[in-house]
Amino acid sequence: MPSLFLWQNIVMRDFFIIVKWRSKEAARLVTRQGRKTILISSLAIIFLIMFSVPLIFYMREYFIPNFSRIAGLSDQLRELTGIDLKMIVITFFSAIIFSILLGSDLPVVISNLFFSDRVKLLIQMPVKKSTIAKVQLSEVLTTGGLPILLFVPVFLATLSGLGVSGFRFWLALVLLIIFVVDILCITSVISFAVVFLSRGRFLKVLSSIMTMVTLFAFIFTLRFMDFSAIDLARPDHVAEQFGTLQGVITAPYLPWTPFVNSILGKTDDVVLFLLYSLAIIMILEFLEIFLYPGVIQKLTTRPTGSIKNFRKEGRGRSHSFSGILKKDFLLLIREPKLTFAFLYPSLFVPVVVMANPTLLRSFGILQLLGLIVFLFSNYSTVTSTALFAFERQLGDNGLLFPVKRLGTVISKASIVTFLYSLIVFLVGLYVVSKASVYRDFMFTFLLFMLPTIFSLSLLGGYLEKSFGTRDTGNVFKALTLAGALISFVLSTLLPVFTTLPLAMYTTGSIAAFLGFLNLPAANPWNWIFGMAIPFLLWAGIIWASLKSLCYNFV
To answer: Can you tell me where the transmembrane regions are (predicted)?
Structure first.
């Protein structure tokens, strides 16, 4: 008992003290902004409401009833053929959750655990290294898992439609939270392996390894969930093919299988899933205690380059706009911490399409388009935020006057816009070459992505100034929780209410967009959502960001 109490007093006390300090710090960073916080938060809330209301209507009227019919069919099939459609559907969604979280968490975990300025600060204090790891991972749990917020309502609606209700529904929600924690632990274990293999020396190699791991996760999931092998034209073989698919995607060695069994199984399956989760946590705890201290000590004591000469060269020199553009472009290309930010979305779409060509057919093209928008919008904001954070790190204070500051801001936004627009255009050409029937709409859509990316590039600088953590060593954690949440919401939903409706309005298909919003396809709604709202949102974000970044107020 005394030893247990001492362990709790030393480890857990330090953990909660640091978390409390971080929470107060984040609250001060938010409240000090005054009307800036109110303005940008209100815009994010409006976007959420505009997106959530029609989504809830769609789920209640179409999504849940369709899965209710699948549930009824599943019971009949299970009796006749042994095929459990419920398990196949829940496994499909669980695998998507796993791949999305692994892909979004891995760069955040590596950056937060091994390359954060806050880690360098904490190791100078009388705090155990394992406690530091727990604190850093707790931040990842709150910010790295933001992409799954869009998917959790869909997953819960699926469970409701499949007949999971009452106590089992709330138990499934608790198990889902545990599953998310398990994915974070698995990602952390992988991050230890990645840093160990790269030895923390070659950050470009580290970025390449992160890219390969995350792409492999998506490809692995897509190949396992490939329904194209089922030939519906031969009904005598459909049952056999579905049975084979069920055996593959529910194999016991897959990381989501214990979670799926705990939702659909009995008490023994729930206990087995909890033991599985405990085993993963114990493995991570072992790495935190015995491996993390040595790795972080080597990384933080390794000598780094100095920026003293750069600062001296920058003082008293009148930089031309072309020189600023060149500086920002070289920083973006050469900085290893930013390599992943544009390497990953560049390779994602071609590799995923090669892994699952069915995405280029009918409804799959919409899924692929959604992935393109989601990736490039969010990574544009992340890259812009990182560029502005690096400028703060370099201490280039000679360019803070309004006129010159405008040039530096436009330079960073232009570089990010050029790079991601080029990548988006090349990816779009690749998709069009595989699915030429969507040529006109795709080119129109890609054209209207340019002002969206430019707006998000300026928004990244605005968020870094208003919600920045000042942690320049951690590119993927440059914003507070509030800033990261606002960045994620605006980056995800801005293209939905600007690029998409404007492209549909131009090509004469705005009725489908208004139908999703449950609005009539007639004026003035056509003009309001197809023209007015997109241009007002672009102009408002660009104006507010430039005013804040160049003149220190909104």
So the answer is: 38-59, 87-115, 136-157, 169-198, 205-225, 270-292, 338-359, 365-388, 409-431, 443-463, 475-496, 502-520, 527-546
Angle, vertex CA 200, rays to CA 195 and CA 203, nearest 5: 100
Contact 147, 488 (CB under 8 A): yes
Q: What is the pLDDT of residue 231?
A: 47
User: 3-class DSSP state for residue 479?
Assistant: strand
468 within domain boundaries: yes
pLDDT for 381-411, tens place per residue? 888 888 887 777 665 544 444 446 777 888 8
For residues 434 and 353, is the Cβ–Cβ distance under 8 A? yes
- In angstroms, what is the C-alpha Rg of the chain? 25
CA–CA dist 48, 493 (Å, integer): 8
Q: Which two tokens stand for residue 37?
A: 């916080």
Which of 393, 391, 420 has the alpha carbon at shortest distance from 319?
391
CA quadruple 52, 476, 367, 99: dihedral positive or negative?
Answer: negative
Write down the pLDDT at residue 404: 64
Helix (H, G, I), strand (E, B) or coil at 468: strand
Identify which of 493, 500, 491 has the alpha carbon closest to the alpha carbon of residue 530: 500
What is the rounded CA–CA span in Å between residue 358 and residue 276?
34
Q: Are residues 202 and 339 in the same domain?
A: no
Are residue 89 and residue 167 in the same domain, yes or no?
A: yes
Distance between CA atoms of 318 and 17, rounded to whole angstroms?
47
Q: What is the mean pLDDT of residues 457-477?
A: 76
CB atoms near residue 146 (< 10 Å): 18
Say whether both 268 and 369 belong to one domain: no
Task: List Cβ neighbours of 293 (8 Å cut-off, separation of 6 or more).
Answer: 129, 130
Q: Model-level pTM?
A: 0.72
Contacts of 349 (CB under 8 A, 6+ apart): 368, 371, 372, 375, 427, 430, 431
Q: Would the pLDDT of 307 be above 50? A: no
- Across the strands, what pairs with 468? 479
